[in-house]
Design a protein that fits this description.
Blueprint: E1 5-9, H1 15-27, E2 32-34, H2 39-45, E3 49-52, E4 59-62, E5 64-66, E6 72-74, H3 84-94, E7 98-105, H4 108-118, E8 123-128, H5 134-143, E9 149-154, H6 157-165, E10 173-176, H7 181-194, E11 201-222, E12 230-237, E13 240-245, E14 260-265, E15 269-272, E16 276-279, E17 288-293, E18 298-320, E19 323-330, E20 336-338, E21 344-346, E22 355-360, E23 364-366, E24 369-371
Parallel strand pairs: 1-2, 1-10, 2-3, 3-4, 4-7, 7-8, 8-9, 9-10
Antiparallel strand pairs: 5-6, 11-14, 11-18, 11-22, 12-13, 12-15, 12-17, 13-22, 15-16, 17-18, 18-19, 20-21, 23-24
Length: 378
């Protein structure tokens, strides 16, 4: 599952009222606004991407036109053989511009136009007037192999939930015209919940534990507070990883650091959003990684800093069915893995025969992405 997102379509209200709604959206992580009237003012609020028919906008808009008061209307004529929107979209794409098309689905002809535009533009906003979910299903199915991000225009959190769950994969995002701070908060919660990736954690049995000398160890400090039971999926193999617990628990040696995961050596992998991996050495401030809990539920957190130091390492080997799993961790009492009873167990207390929670991917990885190709890791 990829991360879902929400955009705001500016309501036709006074600027000061609009500003408060857009600011609230930004506070809840909604940083794209479709607006035909106040682009310059919106840009002053913060780092916000503006979608507009203005060619200087961050994302150029085709398919609707602005009236003098900033409201929108759809061009009524649809000529699939000679679509002006299609030509404009192609021209701006050739200039290196991000383009979004806005299509109101009123007929099969509009569905076909959406499919054609979806093969050209970066984003496709679909607006339904008294429609069922069927046209949305058809368009998602037809464009699933294209790079376009499909966005459904919705009026409520319930409609948003339906849109992002349609055909299991759902739309990539939703766009809505906010009418209250509560609506923005509720929409944000729907998107956050839908963006969670779930990992089917298995129980692997430890087969070997041994010190292996020193190496460059990576600590990941996040901008979020991690709870007991949460950590990150870390491993020397990209297709098999241990759940390494956060430093959210108290120790007799050091105070808890609930924002930190003492992850492992620089060559190890960490799971990041989109079911992808990165080397620990690649992580930088501002990157996204996944915090995963004992049940396999995940959430995206931001890297605040990465700290690399030479530390003594310990090798943990385990087996799940006929799959071997290996990882190196710092050899210290404060480093913990999660066992089969959901307890965080220090590496200094582990022994052969103990069972640990692990994630096994059926496919290997190439440049961090899962691929259906045999790759041997040992």
């Amino acid at each position: 599952m990829t991360n879902k997102f929400a955009w705001i379509m500016s309501p036709d209200i006074k600027w000061e009222e609009k500003k408060e709604l857009i600011t609230t959206g930004l506070e809840f992580g909604i940083d794209h606004v479709l607006d035909l009237k106040d682009m310059k003012n919106i840009e002053k609020i913060g780092n916000i991407k503006v979608i507009s028919e203005d060619e200087n906008a961050d994302i150029f808009l085709v398919g609707i036109k602005g009236e003098g008061d900033g409201t929108l209307h759809l061009d009524s004529d649809v000529d699939l053989t000679n679509s002006n929107d299609l030509e404009v979209a192609k021209n701006f794409k050739n200039k290196g511009k991000k383009v979004v098309a806005y299509v109101e689905i009123n007929s099969k002809k509009h569905e076909e136009l959406a499919r054609i535009l979806g093969k050209v533009v970066d984003y496709l906003i679909l607006v339904g007037k008294n429609w069922t979910v069927i046209p949305l299903e058809n368009i998602i199915a037809d464009l699933q192999k294209e790079e376009v991000k499909i966005i459904a225009s919705v009026n409520s959190p319930d409609e948003a939930k339906i849109a992002i769950e349609t055909l299991e994969t759902g739309t990539d995002g939703v766009i809505f015209r906010p009418n209250s701070f509560k609506q923005i908060k509720d929409m944000s919660k729907i998107i956050e919940d839908a963006s969670h990736e779930e990992y089917d954690l298995k129980e692997a049995t430890i087969t070997n534990i041994k010190p292996v000398g020193t190496g460059d160890r990576v600590c990941i400090d996040t901008t979020s507070m991690l709870s007991p039971g949460e950590g990150m999926l870390i491993g020397s193999y990209s297709k098999s990883m241990f759940l390494v617990h956060s430093e959210s628990l108290e120790s007799e040696y050091v105070a808890s650091r609930p924002f930190r995961v003492n992850a492992g050596p620089v060559q190890a992998y960490v799971m990041v959003p989109g079911n992808k991996t990165k080397y620990l050495s690649e992580l930088e401030t501002g990157d996204e990684v996944l915090a995963v809990d004992k049940d396999g539920d995940s959430r995206t957190v931001i890297v605040g800093r990465v700290k690399i130091e030479k530390r003594p390492l310990i090798l943990i080997e385990a087996a799940y069915e006929d799959i071997k799993i290996k990882s190196l961790l710092q050899n210290a009492e404060t480093i913990r893995l999660v066992n089969n009873t959901d307890e965080a167990v220090s590496v200094s207390d582990l022994k052969v025969g103990d069972k640990l929670k692990v994630f096994i991917d059926q496919w290997a990885r190439h440049f961090g992405m899962s691929i259906e190709k045999p790759i041997i890791e040992k």
